[in-house]
Amino acid sequence: MKKEYLLLDQVEGSLIELSNLHRVAYDEVVKIKSTDSNSEMVGQVVKIDGDSATIQVFGENLGVSTNNTKITFEARPFEIPLSNRILGRVFDGIGRPIDKGGDIYSNKFYNVNGRPINPVAREYPRNFIQTGISSIDCLMTLIRGQKLPIFSGSGLPHNELAAQIVRQAKISANDEEDNFAIVFAAIGVKHDDADYFREAFKNAGVTEKVAMYINYADDPIMERLIVPKCALTAAEYLAYEEHKHVLVIMTDITSYGEALREVSSSREEVPSRKGYPGHLYSDLAMLYERAGMIKEIDGSVTLIPILTMPNDDITHPIPDLTGYITEGQIVLSRDLNQSGIYPPINVLPSLSRLMKDGIGDGFTREDHSDLSSQLFASYSRVQEVRSLAQIIGAEDLSENDRKILKFGEEFEKRFLTQKFDENRDINETLDLGWELLKLLPEDSLDRIDPKLREKYLNKAVINNG
Fold first, then answer.
1. Tens digit of pLDDT for each residue in 403-454?
2. Are both 32 and 123 inside the same structural domain?
3. β-pairing, 15-18 with 10-12?
4. Which of 64, 373, 410, 442 has its CA at a distance of 20 to 30 angstroms from the CA of residue 81?
5. Is 133 found in the same domain as 46?
């Protein structure tokens, strides 16, 4: 039964406090109506203390006072209607359509708070998702059901990379291609950034398989805490009820963390490291752990959260905690970006902890694991030789070291560098890796099975003419 209250204790910012309540639940949705302006807003119970509660309003409390407002408790959590018609649509931060396509009509409403997947019910991820980007597909392979964040910095092309992944991503099994969908969540983005994503998807012809949830930078800050939950709820519906393989891309998780810090400060919670609340880890984990695969259920949720590191500091609380929870990371480099390399993926600190079980014969190609390991080791050696060359000069390097430097230049120029609209097949990526390895001294190829070296290295020499 809905309960209405007319007397408020306090209104401060976007928070409303009231007491003498009866059977009010945490996270319960409330309707706030000003008797003067006749306007209605939505809020949510964020704190309960005895018979008192604090309500967070989605928006500004302009015109709201303690004696002209009616609070109605809806006796339900925050829910959104879902059907397969959400694909091709654009919604705001709390799940309302903003594309002039009309409301979503469904007899099914879903609680956006959701729950992390029970570890016992998880299916171990093994299937490869092709992004068409060589450095990701070969060296930090994305696996279906994985959580693989992108660590970026202010001014780096993470938006372009996210749009390219949305345009090009596909599951490896061709007979399942129709079951692939994408949910895109933009958290605290500028209007021109949101327009960029919409136009990029439209021009690429992938709009019909994408559901977008957008929270603009000038939208209420509380919505930034809801939009990733709405996106994940939609992804769970598509995966576990419509049996689709869903890729969820979120940008920018740093905006989510900063909104959490601001709301926590307004609630007067005790701050932790750099002013973030002590429950930042559990909040991020409750988002990330909703991705995965469930045993005996067709469908999967794969998550790529994008976060900008303040001052490029990878030890900042948000990337630091994200690294603990997720299964690897893709790190973007400012130095590579300034050198004109796109996408500027810094290979050495990047990794995918699940790729070892999702590549090789039957998944990608038999040589993938050995080739990836050799490219990593060789590029690591490139950094050592470059440091040595700065000390003694490139002209005093040995012949083998000069070959390693040549490999490094070609690796960055041909393998890491791709055009924004260049979509490379996994076989094309692996063949390119073999072509680059033949630039190295043969005795340095110590991470490759001799049979694979004979089969693919000779083929690469022939292909390169």
1. 999 999 999 999 999 998 899 999 999 999 999 999 998 888 889 888 888 8
2. no
3. antiparallel
4. 64
5. no
Burial class for 82, CB neighbours closer than 10 Å (0-12, 13-18, 19+): buried
Residues 213 and 109 in one domain: yes
* pLDDT, tens digit, 9 for 90 and up, residues 54-100: 888 887 665 567 777 888 888 888 899 999 899 999 999 888 899 88
- Tell me how far CA of residue 273 lies from CA of 67, 316, 317, 326, in angstroms: 39, 9, 7, 20
Domain end among 76, 91, 124: 76
How many angstroms separate the CA atoms of 417 and 433, rounded? Answer: 13
Q: What is the mean pLDDT of residues 34-56?
A: 82
Say if CB 181 and CB 208 are below 8 A apart.
no
∠ CA 164-165-167, rounded to 5°? 65
**Spatial contact of 277 and 261, defined as CB atoms under 8 Å apart:** yes
Residue 25: CATH number of its domain: 2.40.30.20
Give yes or no for a contact between 18 and 73, defined as CB atoms under 8 angstroms apart: no
Please give the residue that has the higher pLDDT: either 16 or 87. Answer: 87
pLDDT single digits (tens) 136-149 = 999 999 999 999 99
Residue 395 and residue 348 share a domain:
no
In a domain, residue 130? The reply is: yes
Q: Is residue 154 part of a domain?
A: yes
* Residue 362 falls inside a structural domain: no
Question: With contact defined as beta carbons under 8 Å apart, do 69 and 38 qualify?
Answer: no
pTM to 2 decimal places? 0.90
Look at the chain and report how many structural domains it folds into. Answer: 3
Q: Give one DSSP letter per residue of 352-413, joined into a string.
A: ETTGGGT-STTTS-TTHHHHHHHHHHHHHHHHHHHHHHHHH-GGGS-HHHHHHHHHHHHIII
Q: What is the pLDDT of residue 175?
A: 44
CATH code for position 232: 3.40.50.12240
